[in-house]
Structure formats: C-alpha cells, structure tokens
Design goal:
single chain, mainly alpha, 9 helices
Length: 186
C-alpha cells in the first residue's frame, strides 16, 4: 500500500521526535535502530525509507533537540524582566528539572561526547545549532563588543555544569554544582 507524502512526512517527524528523546536519554550507542523504530510502532526495515543511515537520523535528532533547547532558552529570556535575560537563561538551563530529564534537555550536555566521535554531518548539525544558541546568549547576556566571548563562556559553563551535575551520585553535590554555576553566571 502506498502512503501519501504527508503521511511519510508525519511518520518521519515522529521518528525524529522519538529518536531525539531516546538518544538524549540513552546515548547514540545506547539504543539501536530496531528499538527506535519499535518505539514509534514501525519495523526496522521501514527505517531505510526515511534515512540512509543511523548517522543521518542522529544528525536530524541532534538538530531537533537543540532547536527545542534554543526555544526554551529564548522563551525564558523573553519572559524575564528587562535586563534579566542572562539570569533567566542560566536558571532555566541549570535547573533540577533539566538535570533530571536528559531526554527533554540539551543535546550538547547529553550527547556531546558521542557527537565528537561521529561524522561531519552530525558535527555540522550541532555546530549550526550551537551558533544559534550563542546568538541567543549574546542577545541577552553580554556587554557590547564582548557579547560573543561571554556567550560562549556562559554556554560552556552551563553545559559543563550540567554534565557534572548528572554524573555525580550525590544529589547534594549535584545541586551544589548547579547552584555554583548559576551564581558564577549572574
């Protein structure tokens, strides 16, 4: 049975959305194509009607996940009182909710080490979205002429703190890491 182009596009979007969450939760090597497809009610063979390779799926999934992060950071900054955008971004990113729900969070914190070992298409997707994140942080967080370096340092601090906060066993230390990073950024 042939499906309409709209059906194929909707199915493709469902696969990417599911993969985006599952990859952030389990890592690139933590889940296989068959499991990803089963999660959306499709067969392993159907994967190749949508993607040439797992790397192609990871590329789209990373871009989708970072698009969600960018939207959340921008929304936090725009909802903040004037002049408080940087603080709102830091508080939104460096939250317990973000730490505890990697599957909904920033793909850089969840998959950065995996992406570093992947091919150029995945790295390019991450880099393009990282430039967007830097632009958001620049818009809300730095002095004129120094905005980009400050934005990069801010994002590097947030990502590093999130990785550390997720990696430790102790909730107390995890909270201390997040709070220390928030304080350093505001």
């Amino acid at each position: 049975m042939r499906y309409s182009q709209t059906h194929k596009e909707e199915t493709h979007a469902r696969i990417v959305a599911s993969a985006s969450e599952r990859l952030r939760e389990s890592g690139v090597n933590g889940i296989g194509v068959a499991d990803l497809m089963r999660a959306v009610g499709l067969t392993h063979g159907g994967f190749y009607a949508h993607f040439d390779s797992k790397e192609a799926l990871v590329t789209e999934s990373v871009s989708t996940a970072l698009g969600q992060t960018i939207a959340r950071l921008r929304a936090a900054a725009e909802a903040a009182p004037r002049g408080q955008g940087r603080k709102a971004i830091a508080e939104s990113y460096l939250s317990a909710a973000h730490r505890d729900h990697a599957e909904k969070g920033c793909a850089i914190a969840a998959l950065g080490a995996d992406v570093a070992r992947m091919g150029p298409s995945v790295k390019a997707a991450l880099e393009a979205r990282l430039e967007e994140m830097i632009a958001v942080a620049e818009e809300y967080g730095g002095a004129r002429g120094e905005a980009r370096p400050k934005a990069i340092a801010m994002l590097a601090t947030m990502v590093g703190a999130m990785v550390m906060a997720r990696a430790v066993k102790s909730k107390g230390l995890s909270e201390e890491i997040l709070e220390s990073a928030r304080q350093a950024l505001v």
